[in-house]
Amino acid sequence: MKNLPEGFLEKLRAVLSPEECLEYISAFDKEYYRGIRVNTLKCSVSRAKELLPFELTEAPFSDKGFYIPFETQGLGNLPLHRAGAFYAQEPSAMSAVTVLDVQKGDYVLDLCAAPGGKSTQIAAELDGTGLLWSNEIVKNRANILLSNIERMGVVNAVVSSCRPDRLCSALEGFFDKVLVDAPCSGEGMFRKDETAVSEWSPEHSKSCGERQLAILESAAQALKEGGTLVYSTCTFSREENEEVIERFLDSHKDFELVDCGVSFGRRALGKAVRITPMDGGEGHFAAKLKKSGELYGNDPTFSRIDTPQVRAALKLYDEIFKDRPFGERFEEVSDKLLLLPDAAIPALHGLGVLRAGLLFGEVKKNRIEPCHSVFAAARPDQVRSFIDLQSGDPRLAKFFHGEEIEADERLKGFTAVFVDGVSAGFGKAVGGTLKNRYPKGLRSL
């Protein structure tokens, strides 16, 4: 059994019975759980089961979540992973979004979003409707978040790197639903993460609780009246879970704890849920809070801009895509052209926004060059020119390495590349060759 930090088991007894503590200790002699979540923005569950080279076993935490064999190797190098057909995710980490119960058309804030597992899960539930705002205060982690949002083909997201208090103050009362997956001591990851074990201490857990409460206080500002707030962690600690919720409710009489509405896990505070290795996941906690009042809708009215650059972009748009699948709401930001979602979007200035909507193209030497982002969100029926390669095609390795690949001589111009029908990027077809446009930062070595 792994050497657990001194004092940890004593604290664990505050949330688990003696019998449960023994079960938890014995779990360290077993393999930890591994899982994936199918990204239904780009691939159906049934199709993923056909295509993936390993067995999928249903996990209870999401209807799109599955256990995979522990010995599975090289997930990140699979063409379907690079193309965003699935997200590698610890199974119980899917529980918080399930508790949030996202519906199409919702405006959702994921306040502590990196690396993007829960944000992309929210995006799949929204299915291109409403608005997802994903925030991460640490800039380099926010860039990873943006990369995952792009890989998974999310069209209706704003990604920012901003302090929670600043962001939520500026977006007061804007969101139907808010997720706070708070930074924590990581006790739920002890079976799989040696770093979480080595960094644990009672003092660290207590300081996490103070920071978590501050983040939760900020999140409450961004929520509409009648809205839903889900607080989650991957720790077992009362100081970071129950006590944070109790302290928050003591000072926010307009909020109430409501039942999570799920059958998995075990109850905490009567209505929250705690997941342990005995429940089929490494470790998670989620509490669902409801704000009093009547929920109201956002007004998505906006005006479209008409500039020479936008007119040129529309012309290119129609040359590459059929029927303008991502709308026509262009926005110029410096030398970049964005396609914004058809949703109410507040003023973005001063909020550390890295991206809003899809990056359609960049202006270079008086021409517009299309970007990876817009191709990563496309389906075969939406583009005029494409190559669809099977996972075993040797051209895929060359494409992801940034090399030119052979193409049908009949293909001309900007051409999408698909992996078994899942968008992976694009190139420019010229005389039987596809000149590669796969981003350098994503290429395999």
Describe this structure in words.
The protein starts with 7 loop residues before the first helix and ends in a 9-residue tail after the last strand. The chain has 14 helices and 23 strands. The radius of gyration is 23 Å and the shape is globular. The chain is α+β, with helices and mostly antiparallel strands and 445 residues long. The strands form four sheets. Strands 5, 6, 7, 8, 9, 10, 11, 12, 13 and 16 form a ten-stranded mixed sheet that branches.
Percent helix, as a range, is 25-40%
Poorly predicted regions are none
Number of strands: 23
Shape: globular
Radius of gyration: 23 Å
Number of helical segments with 4 or more residues: 14
**Class by alpha and beta content:** alpha+beta
* Beta-strand percentage range: 15-25%
Q: Brief description of this entry?
A:
The protein is of the alpha+beta class and 445 residues long.
Keywords for this structure?
single chain, 445 residues, alpha+beta, 10-stranded mixed beta sheet, 5-stranded mixed beta sheet, 14 helices
Describe the secondary-structure layout:
Layout: H1 8-12, H2 18-26, E1 35-38, H3 45-51, E2 57-58, E3 65-67, H4 79-82, E4 86-88, H5 95-100, E5 107-110, H6 117-126, E6 131-135, H7 139-151, E7 157-160, H8 164-170, E8 175-181, H9 194-199, H10 202-222, E9 223-233, H11 242-251, E10 255-258, E11 266-268, E12 272-275, E13 284-291, H12 308-320, E14 330-333, E15 336-339, E16 353-356, E17 358-364, E18 367-370, H13 372-376, E19 386-389, H14 394-400, E20 405-406, E21 413-419, E22 422-430, E23 433-436
Parallel strand pairs: 5-6, 5-8, 6-7, 8-9, 19-21
Antiparallel strand pairs: 1-3, 1-4, 2-3, 7-16, 9-13, 10-13, 11-12, 12-13, 14-15, 15-17, 17-18, 20-23, 21-22, 22-23
Helix pairs in contact: 8-10, 10-11
